[in-house]
Automatic annotation (TrEMBL):
The keyword Transmembrane does not apply. Binds 4 Cu cations per monomer. Lignin degradation and detoxification of lignin-derived products. One of its GO terms (biological process) is lignin catabolic process. It comes from Phoenix dactylifera. Belongs to the multicopper oxidase family. It is found in: Secreted, Extracellular space, Apoplast. SUPFAM superfamilies: Cupredoxins. Its EC number is 1.10.3.2. PANTHER family: LACCASE-14, MULTI-COPPER OXIDASE. It is an enzyme of class 1 (oxidoreductase). Keywords: Apoplast, Copper, Lignin degradation, Metal-binding, Oxidoreductase, Repeat, Secreted, Signal. This is Laccase. Its main location: secreted.
Amino acid sequence: CETYHHVFHVKEASYTRLCRTKKILTVNGQFPGPTLYAYGGDKLVVKVYNIAQENVTIHWHGVKQPRNPWSDGSEYITQCAIQPGSSFIYTITFTDEEGTLWWHAHNDYTRATVHGAIVVYPRHGTSYPFPKPSGEVVIVLGEWWNKDVNTVLEKALETGGEPNASDSFTINGQPGDLYPCSKPGTFRMLVEHGKTYLLRVVNAAMDDGLFFSIADHLLTLVGSDGSYTKALTTDYILISPGETMDLLLKANQSPRNLYYMAARAFSYQPVNNIDNTTTTAIVQYKSHYTQRSTNPLLPTLPFYNDTEAASKFSFSIRSPAGMHWPISCPQRFDQRMIIAVAVNELECQLSGSCEGPNGTRLSASLNNISFVNPPIDILEAYYKGINGVFGASFPSRPLQYYNFTAEYQPLELLKPRLGTMVRVLEYGATVEIVFQGTSLVRAESHPMHLHGFSFYVVGWGFGNFNEKKDPLGYNLEDPPLKNTIGVPRNGWVAVRFTANNPGVWLLHCHLERHLIWGMNTVFLVKDGEGPGTKLLPPPPHMPPC
Ligand code: C2O
Ligand code: CU
């Protein structure tokens, strides 16, 4: 296992998209940012210099960072921001992660443009559990705002309304042919007929799940969230913000056509409230034949609100359990948590009325507690024993049982409590979490993401979780190992993991607007008894608050 060193300069750069030019925050001037490469078990050391005008932190999404939350990069949770003019060194330690992961800024709305892929090749001396592809390409799905993203965030927080939707979706930073002024930049993937390619797809979009497909070609899923999966062949995928999907593409169609790969929003909102345009890139066969047409073929994607299509794909994913791939899914658990996931309303603080429903301010919660950022990061407060920064009473059950998915909800539930609450877990405890979607304010799908762990997705369903009946249908044989899972709209999903990573770890919805509204909580995993089970000491220079 090797250690590789990288330098990230966080700085502004000028980019032209959708007919206009603006400054965006980047790493090393690149959008999307640089791809990091490693082999299983390697270590990366990334020195981040902030030479921009705003704060930043960088999170290594899906890297478990054993015993070392100090390098996890979540602002207010594991560190304070790297301020303009200062730097911080992150140590990224890979253990069993293989496949595609990604990194992104983890403060305010900075991750809109500050993100990139992480490619983890099989550990030296091992190989993919599928035939080695002839080539591979990273596909980062994202969003582009004509406005400055800080302005979008500030306006949303000030007015209490929805943040403005982006002006386009992007593939590798490019909106693609179907958006204005975008044709020359459209990303092209060149393939040779008869060969197989590995697509490493990351959804770095802020606020939308995306359906993704390639015209006339089937895709075979072989990995997701830094773990291999059983091969799953499909004509489209659904990918939520935070998720990654490794797909094999067989270039077996007529080399005389051009083909679009395309992505479009999966959303609860009606078409006129979202960007329903399709972002595209071109798959082109290297050949000496003349092309039949210069118009690429467009794939058919599921409709924007097709929850069935979304769930059908997401819950078909399986881990490659078997002789060579032992699975460590806990067969029993020490504690089951039921976490109600909701969008809420708070009183307006403006003199007039806010832009949320009924003139209120939008907010979001887990078990009816809307997370409030503490003045110093929770990890520091825990490590140094500083009192009064957080409370340890995040409830293991919703504060009130009700019909979570009914059309009308009790008014008192619309308003969450505000607080900085963590849940303390004993080292080594086996935990089941059932995320229960609700129809408070609005029913939508929430991609829930846990830092510091991967979890097995053992069950799901529409409607309310039934604690007696539903566990009987769990899949404990070959559940997929994920770090982000979409809770189906008006449904629930159950995950299991072992709390064997001491430290402070964020759990949140990966829709950025929900995160800023408080749809998060923190697991504080205590030290174990034996060697190698204790939180590491902090590096010498943590950024001050
Ligand atoms: Cu990819 Cu807390 O995030
Ligand atoms: Cu959400």
